[in-house]
Design a protein that fits this description.
Layout lengths: L23 H12 L5 E5 L18 E6 L12 E4 L12 E7 L8 H11 E12 L4 H8 L2 H10 L18 H11 L6 E6 L10 H16 L9 E7 L2
Helix pairs in contact: 2-5
Amino acid sequence: MTQSVQDLPIETEPVNCPSSRPRPEEIFEQLFSNLVHPGDSILDAGCSNGRFAAERCSGLSRCRITGLDLLETVGQNPSVDFRVCGNVNQLPFSANSFDVIYARWLVEHLENPEVALREFHRVLKPGGRLALFTTNLLHYYGGAAKFTPNWFHLWFNRRVRGFKEDDIFPTYYRANTRWRLQKLLSSAGFRRADTEVTLAEGAPTVLAFNSLLHRVGMAYEYLVKRFDVLSAFRMNLIAMARKE
């Protein structure tokens, strides 16, 4: 496999200097860019209108990027070369179509993740690579999103996080622990030896609306980063897999 999360400088700075450390999203984008070769055909799965676009990674100018989403907002995505309205559970592509699949903030929204992962494996070429970034169910953020009612999910994302309504989607968290995601990737056809699922913790910005909760979140961040035994409770899952 390529460079892993452990190889990147997550813990090289004191915990009271969070701005000097890469965010989980930045770690993921770096790992993703390491998978990509000039001329690759890339599927940006669940890309919507391009808010989390693969184009932001360096070195993709010579690649062909196809954006796919179930919503018609995919047609407004300026970051892809081709736009397809379709379902990840039944990808409208032939087998062995893509060199790389990029899926950021998708897995938590999959009602049937095992079906989507099998589809990803099918449309990847032999030697093709899959990059996934999602929220960990065992983190307080993932747990709250999973077990709070949908009306609260909508209210919190609109009022506290400033999301527009068309950027808020149902969540299921049916593949969102390291163990569960590894199992589903293996069942989809990705060899375990060619699959790496790691976790990264980010700053508790979601708790910034309340000073006390934010301090608790900072303490949580310190503990899960400081002690490897608590790594399963970090915020984000980063998965890299390869098709034989």
